[in-house]
Design brief:
With 283 residues, the protein is α/β, with parallel strands linked by helices. Helices cover 40% and strands 14% of the residues. The longest helix has 21 residues. The chain starts with 5 loop residues before the first strand and ends in a 14-residue tail after the last helix. Bound molecules: guanosine-5'-triphosphate and magnesium ion (MG).
């Protein structure tokens, strides 16, 4: 991998950051969503700056696709940095109870103030932030109990902010995913490409697949069952060739390492390979 950093900052992100700077003034709570498979790489220091001292709940999304031990370690790790830390599968189960519990001190404070000044009860305003594809819109749909925000497994689905009133306690603000401007460490960009949070062409597909295999090699037999890799060994080309054979991915009559690389990355992104993480707090 080259030593050069990666620069990637589309115009809509610049605009989103500007608008979030305005909205933050009226926000009571920030929910920062990070991908549980790489919470550190999916943190955006630009957002840190912008959010200042606002109360924050960190939510590790896609925990169903991450190594449960690593996720638990991350939850403990983030506890000192936020009002609350949650982890979950945003496509299943009910998140609203968790959000309520995490936000209850903030709601109580607001109610106290409203009572003191005989003001009408207002929902707290919650801004949902994070880099692209971590599940911001999915979180909002989950809390809302119906599909009000568009979602999709690629970066940049949400292009503009959207307020959504949930109930008398919550109004949520969906925001477009924003990435840091530069990645001094291209390793971070590689992880984000593997999560589908960044354009994939930071590296050629084959190189990216090899990086993924390197991450997975921390786990015992990570792909054996899924791709029938009995006796294939640890050589990356041999693994990719076996995957190509298993799935009938050919170039003419030859197993295609390129197509296998693409498939492997896609399945990881979709969380189909198994619960594997790219980062642990102790690494
Ligand atoms: N397995 C799994 N998939 C999830 C989870 N949360 C979100 N997804 C999927 O991840 C993809 C991205 O979700 P979105 O909600 O569109 O992400 P976003 O953060 O709003 O993305 P942008 O609008 O592009 O910034 C979708 O395919 C979701 O179905 C989760 O907890 N588990
Ligand atoms: Mg979105």
């Amino acid at each position: 991998m080259g030593q050069q950093g990666v620069h990637y900052f589309p115009g809509h992100m610049q605009k989103a950051l500007r608008q979030m700077k305005e909205y933050i003034k009226v926000i009571d709570l920030v929910v920062e969503i990070l991908d549980a498979r790489a919470p550190l790489s999916s943190r955006n220091p630009l957002l840190d700056e912008l959010l200042g001292g606002k109360p924050r709940v960190v939510l590790l999304s896609k925990s169903d696709t991450a190594d449960p031990e690593a996720t638990q370690a991350w939850v403990n790790d983030f506890k000192s940095q936020a009002e609350g830390v949650l982890a979950g599968n945003l496509t299943k189960g009910k998140i609203i109870g968790l959000l309520k519990a995490a936000a209850s001190p903030i709601i109580a404070k607001k109610r106290e103030k409203e009572a003191k000044f005989a003001m009408k009860k207002q929902p707290i305003r919650v801004m949902v932030v994070g880099i692209p594809n971590v599940g911001k819109s999915t979180f909002i749909n989950n809390v809302c109990g119906k599909n009000v925000a568009i979602t999709g497994n690629k970066a940049g689905v949400t292009r503009a902010e959207q307020w959504i009133k949930i109930n008398e306690d919550f109004t949520l603000l969906d925001t477009p995913g924003v990435l840091p401007m530069n990645y001094a460490q291209s390793e971070v960009a590689v992880r984000l490409a593997l999560l589908g949070s960044m354009r994939e062409d930071v590296l050629p597909t084959y190189e990216l697949a090899k990086e993924l295999l390197r991450y997975l090699s921390r786990y015992e037999h990570p792909l054996k069952a899924r791709f029938d890799l009995e006796g294939v060994g640890e050589d990356y080309d041999a693994i990719l060739t076996a995957i190509a054979k298993k799935r009938g991915l050919l170039d003419g009559s030859v197993p295609s390492i390129e197509k296998a690389s693409y498939l492997l990355i896609k399945e990881f992104k979709d969380g189909k390979l198994g619960p594997y993480s790219l980062e642990t707090p102790d690494a």
